[in-house]
Amino acid sequence: MWATTYFRDKFFGRIRTMSQCEAINALIKRYVRRKSSIFEFTHCFERAVREYRNNEREADFNDSFAEPVLTTSLHKFEREASKLYTMQIFKEVREELLIAGSLNVIERVELGDKLLFKMKKYSDLGKEHSVVSDALKTNLSCECHHYESRGIPCAHIFAVMKYEFMDAIPISLVCKRWTKTAKSELVCSDKLDGVDSYVMKSARFGSVAALAHKICDIASNKRGLFLNITNDLLSLIHKYETMPDSCSKDKLCLNHVGDPTIVKTKGAPKKRGLDKKKRRCRSCNSFGHTAKNCAKLRAKDDDKKGGDHNKLSSPEEKDDVTTHEIYEEAPHEISSSFVVPNPSKRKPNEKELVKNRLSKKAKCPAPIYEKDDVIVSGR
Length: 379
Known about the structure:
Layout: H1 17-29, H2 38-65, H3 75-84, H4 87-100, E1 103-111, E2 114-121, E3 124-134, E4 140-142, H5 146-150, H6 155-163, H7 198-221, H8 226-242, H9 295-312, H10 319-329, H11 350-363
Helix pairs in contact: 3-4, 4-6, 7-8
Subcellular location: Nucleus
GO molecular function: nucleic acid binding; zinc ion binding
Protein name: Protein FAR1-RELATED SEQUENCE
């Protein structure tokens, strides 16, 4: 992009707004589907974060234990770069070392306490690059601003170091962000060196002195509170003189990140709705049982059955006895299809039973006898 030309001397940690958004979208897109619910999206997002952290752990492991193979002619610089930088940054530094092998310094000029080096690439004599260094050769800067924008020395600086027979990369050209020890020190707002700077000490002294001045003003104006304030100040001095410093050198300032507080969602049920409803009988409207095992309903059924039994055994039901007698007298004359009357319905009287018996007998066809048949009477 054309805008990057104006930011070549600014270090942004290789972060660009659009590239970061596109990278995150490309990462999440592999795990999240378009029609996923919020529950599925949460699990997929956590899976993506776990894989991202796992890749970071693998990179840290490779940086700590892997040793790359030296392939350039500048072995000292390459070996030192492999110990300083991470594996990904080391590959970029190695590319710069390969380019530095084809650069030749054509001029060295002393400008006071500065040194100016001019160089050209082998077989490309048209373009010229300049590198400025101090007299001690600890601070080097190139006109391409590669270190200022990318955080690693460019090939032109490595060419000057080769020309001056330097055997190590200056500390001023080592960006701590790309080193293996970038995570070793915790980022904290307070200094844990044990010895504070003079500015911080003066600031604390001024703030406490302002409060002490106000206390002195109150004690001098109020005679009755003078002794109380004096005793309180003496007790505070004795208390804090013997108390150790809470922010000591051995105690790290850790930024603990815990789990977020769990908040109920809008669709969560209320606590009173979670109570189980008691069972209620539809017969007696009491709790603790149902109509199937209701004692009152059973008692009513037993009373009803007892009343029906007494009613059937009363002398008024004479038709049943007569009916059974008729059945016993002529069982062979009644058809098998004859239906016994239901006791729960209206019972026929004796005349109706005789009429039904005669009608059944009349419907039966008379037997047909042959000439030679012999009829034997059973009586």
